[in-house]
Amino acid sequence: MIGQTLGHYRIVELIGSGGMGEVYRATDDRLARDVALKIVRPSSTSGQDRLRRFELEARAAAALNHPNIVAIFDIGVFEGCSYIVSELLEGQTLRERLSAGPMSVRQAAEYGLQVAQGLAAAHEKHIVHRDLKPENLFVTKDGRVKILDFGIAKLVDQEEEDESVATMATQTKSGIVLGTVAYMSPEQLRGKVVDHRTDIFSLGAILYEMLSGRRAFPGETSVDTITAILKEEPPSLTDLRPELPSALEPLIAHCLEKDPNNRFQSARDLAFALSAVASSSTSKTVVALRAIKSRSRKRLVVLTAVAGVLAVAGILFGFKLGEKTETLVYRRLTFERGTVYSARFTSDGRNVIYGACWNTQPLRLYTTVADAPMERQLDVGDGQLLAISRSNELALELHGIHGERVAVVDGTLARTPLAGGAPRELLEHVRWADWGPKGDLAAVYSAGTRILLEYPLGKLLYESSGWISNIRVSPGGDKVAFMEHPAFWDDRGTVEVVDLAGRKTTLSSGWESEDGLAWNPRGDEVWFTAIEKGYNRRLMAVDMGGHLRTVLSVPGGLTLHDIAQDGNVLVTLDNERVAMEASIPGGQDTQDLSWYDWTLAKDISRDGQWVLFEESSEPAGQNYVVGIRKFDGSPPVRLGDGSSGGLSPDGKWALSIFTGAPEHVTLLPIGPGQPRDIPLHGLENIQNGSAHFFPDGKRILVSANHPGHRARTYMQDLDGGKPVPITPEGMLAKFVSPDGRYAAGVGADKGLMVFPLDGGSPQQVPGLQPGYSLIQWSKDSKGLYIYQGGELPATIYKVDVASGRREFVRTVVPSEHAGVVSVAPIVLNTDASRVVYSYYQRLSALYNIAGLK
């Protein structure tokens, strides 16, 4: 067949073969694209069952349009040969991937989630696959899973679901079962009528195999396998892999129930459960493993495991602890891989507008019906969605920079009608905004180092010493609720409300992670998503008297986006992590150096053998962990609590900034020795990551403030003495040049600055726009290594401090692509031959939930 043409498809090469025929790479000469062309073997064309099955595969799959189902382009007959044309995929089948052994929990859950999403789309069109197995799942090079071969799919008539196999006009006959035995459901093996729940059983068997590396129902013969499926239970997953999260086993067991009435009743429910477990699995596993070191902590393991199982059971079996939730209705609205940044109901609650980056594409705005996943892109520019007014006018943030915690900062506030038209720009350096009930705007913006909240625009209500997020004007227009974060580097904080006279009230405090806030329709409660420890935020509500209650808790990270007038709630279920990788210039490979799931690169030793990092995931505890590890793959070493600063020039000490109370900076020994506190003489609000050594190893830079003064950077001797300011107030320095003469940092307008340490005037690096982040000084003290914050991929430059001339060094491309929000921080060794970086990844699924109270 090579070189032959079928219609306008020119066959290039054979890429696979199966039970029904061969699959070729072909060129579509009409549209100038490569496609996959599947041809039924000539010996098969005489069998009517074969031809019917082939045609049914094309119709069933072509009726579907979903990113996790292979796209069908065409079907035809040419000179007696039936063929089907589909998208050409690059990658490997799941069977080929499984040959390498069991998968990580994160990867297995992510693959299973994608398959469940594809099945949900098919089942909604009353199409059942019935032959789901690893051979029929394809993993593309960018990590997307595609379901192949709806070849024995059954088109279920909604009014005839009880019709027997024998009377259905499909490829099967009564008593004949098709598919691969090891993944078939009990009802399918018995020749009974099957529905969408047979696919759920098959997916459960595949999930089991991905995690265990062995089939759920093994047998030496087909008869042995059939007997196992009908009468036996698979071996315990946690016996095979003790480190697996306890919540996974009941989830998979729920898929593998013998009676279909006892399984998940929809693939959508299974997808939601997988999303929840996937987003919390890593940290819970680590907590369980680390907690077995003492008898008292063993009890904690048991309690944590039980609580985890019960929480997931709320998803698996439809209840929440202490409260029935039969009235809750979950509708998933997005199915692409990537990040949802913001979402709002339109004024009538019928539609949803959201901003997202899908499949490594730039940020775009989309609209979808509130009760059905039918998205289309909006032609209103590429800004971040901030709010929608009662008259359906959009507030957008244009030209902003993506932050590490999804927020887009330092953009320009603009307004534009939903119906279309060019945005009208209103205010620069805006971070958040919301519409009031009369069509006026509230906004948070930065003025130098000041963070201001105005409502309406031009009227100052509040100035924060930290940063403000998630502002929402009350339904009556008399208050503004918001989240306030004291530290610039993370999302810890409080829930606040301020009235039109500027009187602020703290409604709730003590949250380690908070993101997402909205007023309920009555205006008597503020709903928000936050968590006291970790990152798996719960949906909470607080009234004006500070009375707090839990609205929804699932084993995953929730972010609240909006509440409609009818009480429907928009949330995203978010799988978040910060990974740390190393890469070598000129090479394509990367080395994963992450410890848990929130690992921040901070420094590289001068000999290039060690990387200093900060771990702030749930297992690290409330005060974070300073750690160090070699590049040879050996395990990391925990040095102590706190946020990491820098390494000493001789590589013997690391700086830790303790994040709890009281604040202090500590020298942590890399080898033998005892920690030693550094006196700071009244400095407070120490800036994260600001503590770095001078080249002589006897002094450090630290950024903080004296009470009543704005933050600045000080020089502090390790042996004591009062801290000496080296920058003006409102300006911060971070690194000292190798010759010890200058410190580099940022000015009030976020431009790069050089501060002479002999007392001279600060100088701005010429020719650079604000927004560049520092990495370190060059070895000759004449240049700085920098990168542009928010750029994907990140590009490293070397800039001459005297002239501002930039020189390209290299780009940084994370091994993951989808859902990567930012690459930061980046660290280099002294000759820039080794690069270590962290990247923040957030995979989101947007849900409309009805029935929450």
**CATH top level class name of the largest domain:** Mainly Beta
Estimate the mean pLDDT confidence: 82
CATH architecture of the largest domain: 7 Propeller
Please tell me the total number of domains: 4
Uncertain parts: 155-179, 280-326, 403-408
Most strands sheet:
7 strands, antiparallel
Binned, the helix content reads: 10-25%
Euclidean distance between termini CA atoms: 63 Å
CATH superfamily of the largest domain: Peptidase/esterase 'gauge' domain
**In what order do the strands lie side by side in the largest sheet?**
19-20-23-24-25-26-27
Class computed from helices, strands and strand pairing: alpha+beta
Number of strands: 60
Radius of gyration from CA coordinates: 29 Å
CATH domain topology of the largest domain: Methylamine Dehydrogenase, Chain H
Helix count equals 11
Strand content: 35-45%
Identify the overall geometry.
globular
